[in-house]
Amino acid sequence: MRLRFSLNGQAMDLADMDGSQSLLSLLRGLGFTGSKEGCGVGECGACTVLLDGLSVDSCLLPAAKAQGRAVRTVEGLAQGESLHPLQEAFLEAGAVQCGYCTPGMLMSATALLERHPRPGDAEITEALEGNLCRCTGYQDIIEAVRLAAAKPERKP
Amino acid sequence: MSLPSQVGLSLARRGGLERVTGACLFGVDLAQPGDLHLFALRAGSGPARIQRLDLAAARAYPGVVAVFTAADIPGINRVGIIAKVKDQPILAEGQTRYPGDAVALIAAESLTAARAAARLARLELEPLPAVSDPRQALLPGAPKVGEAGNLLWEARVRKGDPDGALARAAVVVTNTYTTSKAEHAAIEPEGGRAWWQDGLVVVRASTQNPHHDRHDLARLLGLPEEGVRVIQAETGGGFGGKLDLGLQGFLALAAWHLKRPVVMTYTREESLAATAKRHGLVMEYTSAADEQGRLLLCQAEIFGDSGVYASYGPAVCVRAAVHASGPYRVPHVEAHSRLVYTNNAWCGAMRGFGVPQVALAHEGQMDELAQRLGLDPLEMRIINALRPGDETATGQRLGRSAGLVQCLEALRPHYGQWRREAARSEGQYLRGVGLGAMFYGIGNTAMSNPASARLEMDAEGRLCLFTGAAELGQGSDTVLCQIAAETLGWPAQDVRLVRGDTARTLNAGATSASRQTFISGNAVQLAAQGLRGLLLEQAAALLGAPPQDIALDHGGARAAGKGLPLADLLRGLQERGVVVQAVGDYDPPTTPLDPASGQGVPYPTYAFAAQAALVEVDADSGLTRVPQVAAAHDVGRAMNPRAVEAQIKGGVVMGLGYALMEEYTPRCSNLHQYHIPTIADAPRIVPIIVESDDEAGPFGAKGVGEPALIPTAPAVAGGLAQALGRRLFDQPFSLERIMAALMEGRKTERQKDEAGS
Ligand code: FES
Ligand code: FES
After folding, report:
1. Phi, psi angle pair for A88, to nearest 5°
2. Residue B505 has pLDDT above 80, yes or no
3. How many domains would you assign to chain A?
C-alpha cells in the first residue's frame, strides 16, 4: 500500500509498503532505530512513539494506522543541536543507565507534559507505568520528569 | 593551575547524549540493507532424540541462503564460561536436552523468509526420559543429563567445631528456604551483527565479555583466536544474562561460512526460552547463638538445579558456600553446596551469583535468632557484624575496609522511625520493617582473574584509554576514565575511550562479579602511573630536577620555579622516538580454596551493605507495597557518587522484584507472564554511601553492582514476617503466598479466640 504520514514533522510518502507490519518495524526499517523493541507485545514500552500526540506502543500498531497522521519518535525531540527539556533533564537527573528504555520513556513523558505541563507524582507514575526499565529503579526518571516540568517552556 | 580532585566527583555518564537522542546503536540496531537475517529453529521439546531433521523444503524456500546444523560447525561445538565444563552445543547433535535447544540455523534475505522457512523444516523427535527434580537427578538410574554425570559441582566450607558449638548454644533455629529461578530481563534482548573482513570473522554484539567470546568463537570455528574479532556493541543491560555465548556463536558461524554480513536478534520469547536463569536453591540452615546473641554456628546445606547446562554454575555453587554464613563473625561454620543437572531451563550468572539466595537464608536466620533471644534485629546484626581485622568463614583476615557496622548504624534513623510508624499501624494495613545485610567478595572466586588496560597520549596531549571492560549501563566507562584522569592529573572529560574491541583493547575479563571498578580500575591506575612516569622522566631531564620534585598535570610540568608546557614535553618524547603509552596489568591476590575445608583467600576484598525496608500489606487483598527502602553500602570509596547511587537504586528495585514477583517457569513466554517491577512498584529509596577506603582498591574503591540488589529481598522478607506475624520461607513472596499466610493467621486467631471463650 501507499502510506502517507508525517514523521517528526516531515511528510513521508512511501509506495509499496506492507501496511500489516507493525509501525515499529516500519520505522526501524526506515532507519529510525531510536524506537526499540523489548517485548513486541505491548508490555515494555520501549517502542513508544506519539501518534497525533498520544503515546502508543508502536509494536502493536499496524503501520497502516499511521495513514494521514502525525508520528513522532525520539529522533524528533531535539531541534537541531538544542535538546528537548526532557532530554536535558534525563541527562541532568542521571535517568539514563543502559539507555535502552530511554527513547520510550522520553516519548511517554513528552505526551504527559504536553497534556499536563505541571504533573504531580501520581500523574508521572501513571504516564510511565507502561514503560519498563531494568536499570534505574525509576526514581531518577521521575526526578527527570519533575525537572523538565520545572524548566521554562521551550519556544517552538 | 592544578585540577581539583576528580575522585568523588559525580561526572555525567559517558554516552548519555546519544542515548537521549536515539542515535545510540545497540546490539539489536545494527542491521544494514543487504544483510542476511538469522533465525534459529528450536526444538520446542526435549529431551529427545532427533529421529529426522529434513531441511530440504526450508533450504528451497525463496530468500533462504543457507541452513546450518551441528554438522556445519568446523571446530568444537561446546561453549561455556568455565573451562572445565564447556558443555553447551550451540546446535544440537543428535539429541535435544530441553525445548530451548537450537537444532538448525537459517540464513535468509529477510527475517520473514527465515521464519517461514523454519516452519517448513521437518523435525521428528523421539522423547527421551527426562528428569526435572534435582534430587531425583542424583539417584542411581536417573537419566543422564550432564556428560560426566548429573552432579555438576560441589563445594564445602568448614571452620571450627560445628558439632561442639551446637551443644553449647543457647538458641538454635533450623529452617529451609527456597528461591525461584529468575530471569535477567534486560530490556534489550540479545542482538548483534557479524561479517567477514580481511580474513577475520568480526562479531559485534551485546555482550558482557568480549574477550571470552572471542576465545569460545575461535574454538567453535576451529580458528586461532586472532581469526576472530569481537566488538562489544552498546549493550542495553546485562545483569549476567549476556555473559553466555549463544547468539554470538550463530552470528560467527554464518558469517564464516557465507562471508556476508549477517544480523540476528532474539525476540523476548526466545530470550526467555533459550538463555540462562538465576539458580533456584533449596537451603537448609541451622544457626545457633549464645545468650548474648553472639553467633556460634552456621550450618548450611545448599542444593540447586543447574538445568541442562553448566554455564556459571560452578562459580555460583562455590560463591554460595563461601557466603553462606553471611557478613558475620561465625566461629563454627559448615556449608555444603551442590548443583545438579536436570532437563530444566539452564541457569547461569545473574547479579549476585548465588549470594542473593543465601542472603535470604542467613538473614532469615538472624531475624529468627533475634526473636528467640528477644533482641532487636538491628542490634543482633551489629553485635555480629564482621569488622576490620575479623576472620571470615574461609579464614580470610579482613583489612580495614569492612564497613558493615557503619552501614547498619546509618540505617538506624530510618529503621527507628519506620518501626514506630509500623507499630502504630492498625486496621486494614499491616506494616513491618525488615533488615537485610550482606557481604560480597569482589571478583571471581579463588582464581586468577586479571584485567589489563592501556593508555596512550598523542602529540597534542590527548589521552585515550583502551579497555576491554564491557559497559552495560552501570557506568564503568565513566569511572575508568575518571581513574585514569585522576591518576595523571588530566580532566576526565578530555579522556577519549576505546572500549570492548578484541582487536584494539586488552583483555579485561568479564563485566561480572562487581569486578571492573576494582580490577580494571587498578589496571587503569597502573597504566596511568606508567604514563605519568614517562612524562615525569622527560620533564626531569628537561627541567634538571628529580622526578619527585616535579608537579605535572595536563598543563605541563613545573619544578623549582621553572615551567614546561605539555607540548614541549611531548615533543621531547617524540624526538626521542618514545611512544607515549603504558599498559597496566592487575590480577587480584587470591588463593585457591582447600577442597575439603574451603579455607583460603577467595577475594581481594569484600563489599558490605545493609538495607531496611518498610513493607505494607493490605490485610483484605494481600496486596503488598514497599513504600520505602534505605540502602547503605560500603563501596570503599565512591569514585562517582551519583553512579554509585544509581546502581543502588536500580539494584533495590530489581531486588524488590525478586522478593515479590519474579519466578521463571517455562510458561513465562513474555513479559506479561514474567513480571518485573514497574514505576508503580518502585519505593522511595534513600541511598547511603559508606566509605572505608580499601587498601588495594583504586583510590580506595571496591564495587557495588551486585551488592545493590542482595540485601533487598531479605529486608522485604523481614518486613513481611513482621507485618504478617509469620515468616515466608519460599521466595518470591507472591500474592498467593501472602494470602495463604494471612488466612493462616486468621485461622490461628480464631482458634485462639475459641480457646479463650
Ligand atoms: S516492544 Fe512494544 S511494548 Fe515492548
Ligand atoms: S536504563 Fe536500562 S532499561 Fe532503563
Report:
1. -60, -45
2. yes
3. 2
- The Cα A102–Cα A46 span in angstroms is 8
Q: Which of A47, A102, A107, A131 to mutate to test the pocket of ligand 2 (most atoms within 8 A of CB)?
A: A102
Q: Which of A135, A139, A143 to mutate to test the pocket of ligand 2 (most atoms within 8 A of CB)?
A: A135
pLDDT along chain A (156 residues), means of 10: 97 94 97 98 98 98 97 97 97 98 98 96 98 98 97 64
Q: What CATH number is given to the structural domain containing B56? A: 3.90.1170.50
CATH code: domain of residue B352: 3.30.365.10
Query: Looking at beta carbons, which residues of chain A come within 8 Å of B267?
Result: 40
Residue B335 and residue B479 in one domain = no
CB atoms B654 and A137 under 8 Å: yes
H/E run at residue A97? none
Place of cell 529468575: B182
Contact B671 A44 (CB under 8 A): yes
For residue B287, list its beta bridge partners.
B173, B298
Measured between alpha carbons, how far apart are the two ends of chain A, in Å? 34
Phi, psi of B60 (to 5 degrees): -80, -10
Ligand 1 centroid to Cα of residue A43, in Å, is 6
Is the CB of A98 inside a 6 Å radius of any atom of ligand 2? Answer: yes
DSSP state of B28: G
pLDDT in tens, B331-373: 999 999 999 999 999 999 999 999 999 999 999 999 999 999 9
- pLDDT given at position B147: 87
Chain B 221-260, residues with CB within 8 Å of chain A CB atoms: 234-237, 239
Is the Cβ atom of A97 under 6 angstroms away from ligand 2? yes
A80 within some domain: no
C-alpha cell at B608: 558490605
* B115 CB within 8 Å of a chain A CB: no
Mean pLDDT of chain B: 96
Nearest CA in chain A to B17: A91
Boundary-marking domain end, from A74, A95, A123: A74
Question: Average pLDDT in the B92-114 region?
Answer: 97
In tens, the pLDDT along B280-295 reads: 999 999 999 999 999 9
Dihedral of CA atoms B521, B524, B530, B533 in degrees, nearest 10, equals -70
Q: Is B745 exposed, middle or buried (0-12, 13-18, 19+ CB in 10 A)?
A: middle
Residues 6+ apart with CB under 8 A from B214: B225, B228, B229, B230, B502
Q: Is residue B593's pLDDT more than 90?
A: yes
User: What nine digits make up the cell of B709?
Assistant: 540488589
Q: pLDDT of B469-479, one tens digit each?
A: 999 999 999 99
Q: What ipTM score was computed for the predicted complex, to two decimals?
A: 0.98
Pairwise CB contact (< 8 Å): B16 & A141: no
Percent of chain B clearing pLDDT 90 (strictly above): 95
Q: What ligand is nearest to the CA atom of residue A23?
A: 1
Q: Quote the distance between the C-alpha of residue A124 and its chain's center.
A: 15
Among B251, B274, B297, where does a domain finish? B274
User: At B116, phi and psi to the nearest 5?
Assistant: -65, -40
Residue, of B745 and B597, whose pLDDT is higher: B597
Cβ-nearest to A99 among B12, B24, B650: B24
| Residues A64 and A101 grouped into a single domain | no
For residues B387 and B395, give the distance between their C-alpha atoms in angstroms, rounded to a whole number: 14
How many residues does the structure list for chain A?
A: 156
Q: Are residues A10 and A69 in the same domain?
A: yes
Confidence grade of residue B1 (pLDDT, cut at 50, 70, 90): very low
CA distance B87 to chain A (A): 29
Interface of B with A in 255-314 (CB under 8 A): 265, 267-268
For testing the chain A interface, which of B26, B110, B111, B187 should be mutated: the one with the most A CBs within 10 Å? B187
Asked if residue B670 is part of any domain, the answer here is: no
Stretch B628-648: mean pLDDT: 97
